[in-house]
């Protein structure tokens, strides 16, 4: 399957995003069509493509399929990238990364969005709340944001090298990496 075919129109991206962001729900053509204001035949044709490529199995998203996870990863990162200007306005950071289920394409409806921000200093509680609210409202997911100064990164590397390593393997969304 050509991924570009699935992403070729705004309507396909909209429907694909909806399907992939609800991996535990049973996929129903009319329900998706009604909620997205798309024709049932359009949604049906897209679902046929997804079934043919085993992205859907038994009317549910097949997260065991690497193509399904890659599509989810792409859509997750694309959605977060659109938020970057507003996020940067809420809190000034030197770098931002995504890790956890949103980074590897296994996020479910109840998954939180794991982000790290490299900063010169920790933002105020008001700035943190503003950023969390922005992410929650735009993504419909609870954010889990770690604010990291250079000193905190050195300490984390010494005290919890396994977690530090997981952050080093995260997806860089913007700016500087953690080391």
What does this structure look like?
This protein has 179 residues and is of the alpha+beta class. The mean pLDDT is 92. The protein has two domains: 3-62; 69-175, 2-Layer Sandwich (Beta Polymerase, domain 2). It has helices at residues 3-6, 10-20, 29-36, 40-52, 66-90, 101-104, 125-139, 150-159, 161-168; strands at residues 56-57, 60-61, 95-99, 113-118, 143-148, 171-175. It has a four-stranded mixed beta sheet with strand order 5-4-3-6, sandwiched between helices. The chain contains nine helices and six strands, in the order H-H-H-H-E-E-H-E-H-E-H-E-H-H-E. The longest helix has 25 residues, at 66-90.
What is the spatial order of strands in the main beta sheet? Answer: 5-4-3-6
Q: Please compute the radius of gyration using only Cα atoms.
A: 18 Å
Per CATH, the superfamily of the largest domain is Beta Polymerase, domain 2
Strand content: 5-15%
| Tally of DSSP helical segments | 9
């Amino acid at each position: 399957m050509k991924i570009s075919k699935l992403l070729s129109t705004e309507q396909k991206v909209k429907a694909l995003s909806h399907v992939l962001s609800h991996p535990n729900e049973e996929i129903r053509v009319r329900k998706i069509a009604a909620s997205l204001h798309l024709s049932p035949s359009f949604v049906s044709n897209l679902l046929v493509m997804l079934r043919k490529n085993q992205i859907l199995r038994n009317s549910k998203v097949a997260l065991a399929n690497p193509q399904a996870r890659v599509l989810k990863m792409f859509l997750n990162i694309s959605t977060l990238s659109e938020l970057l200007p507003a996020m940067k306005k809420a809190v000034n950071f030197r770098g931002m990364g995504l890790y956890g289920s949103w980074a590897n394409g296994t996020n479910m409806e109840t998954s939180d969005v794991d982000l790290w921000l490299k900063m010169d200093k920790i933002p105020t509680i008001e700035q943190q709340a503003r950023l969390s609210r922005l992410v929650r409202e735009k993504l419909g997911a609870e954010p889990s944001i770690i604010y990291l100064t250079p000193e905190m990164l050195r300490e984390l590397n010494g005290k919890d090298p396994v977690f530090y390593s997981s952050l080093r393997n995260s997806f860089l969304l913007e700016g500087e990496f953690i080391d």
